[in-house]
Amino acid sequence: MAVTDEAIEKIKGMIVTGALRPGDRLPKEADLAADLGLSRNSLREAVKALSLINILDVRQGDGTYVTSLEPPLLLEALNFIVDFHQDNTVLEFLAVRRILEPAAVAMAATRIAEDEIASLRAALDDLGETPDIDKLVASDLEFHRRISAASGNSVLCSLLETLSAPTARARVWRGLTQEGAAARTLAEHRAILDALQARDPEAARSWATVHIASVEQWLASVL
Questions:
Q1: DSSP string, 70-103
Q2: According to a count of CB atoms within 10 Å of the terminal CB, is the N or C end of the chain lower?
Q3: Spatial distance between the Cα atoms of 143 and 83, rounded to a whole number of angstroms
Q4: SS3 assignment, position 152
């Protein structure tokens, strides 16, 4: 492993220093191994490891390329890790969302387009006042995803999308068991939209905090 780690660090160094840029094709295996002072086997293992975390893209019959290195692509590895979460860590995921998401919503207040606000409001209206829980949760995930995207920060948006997945089951559970949960969710979504339309970052931040904290407090009370 130490030899493979050394190979990984050397390839990483080439990318960090700009010797290899996003989209670049790596030199032939024999040439690159010689240039880096590595065995071809250790280089091969390093390439395999870096392809698993979307740093490199191995194209059969074409060669190996540096990926786009865009945040959503690189954070896919975090998605894989998050899939292994245990139910008792859902509160911790919600706590992290409560820290990050209000910041994204506040950023969106100065950036989100009027037609996007109108579209989000129309989607809420289409749900009606007593929506099916599965539809409500799907709408909730989409609502938060679109507002996070409007923050203009792709890293923050990707992190929040990853953090949303482990809490989806808790949202369904709350909708099925807590009286008035659906109505409260819709009301809080509308309050967030009102703050966004008013271009009021602090009000948007506050409503986003309240919205996530209400799920967190409910879950803490039933676990």
A1: -HHHHTHHHHHHHTT--GGGHHHHHHHHHHHHHH
A2: N
A3: 22
A4: coil
Q: Please, how many CA atoms are within 13 Å of residue 197, restricted to the half-sphere of its CB?
A: 14
Q: What distance in Å separates the CA atoms of residue 50 and residue 47, rounded to the nearest whole number?
A: 5
- Residue 99 near residue 217, CB atoms below 8 Å: no
pLDDT, tens digit, for every residue of 112-151?
999 999 999 999 999 988 888 888 888 999 999 999 999 9
Q: What is each CA distance from 102 to 57, 86, 96, 151, 191, in whole angstroms?
A: 35, 25, 11, 11, 13
Residue 26 · residue 56 · CB < 8 Å: yes
Q: The pTM is what?
A: 0.72
CA distance 109 to 111: 6
> 112 and 121 in contact (C-beta within 8 Å)?
no
- Spatial separation of the C-alpha atoms in residues 219 and 215, rounded to whole Å: 6
The angle formed by the CA atoms of residues 148, 162 and 99, to the nearest 5 degrees, is: 60
Among 67, 63, 86, smallest CA distance to 75 is for 67
Residues constituting the chain: 223
Residue 180 CA from chain centroid, whole number: 29
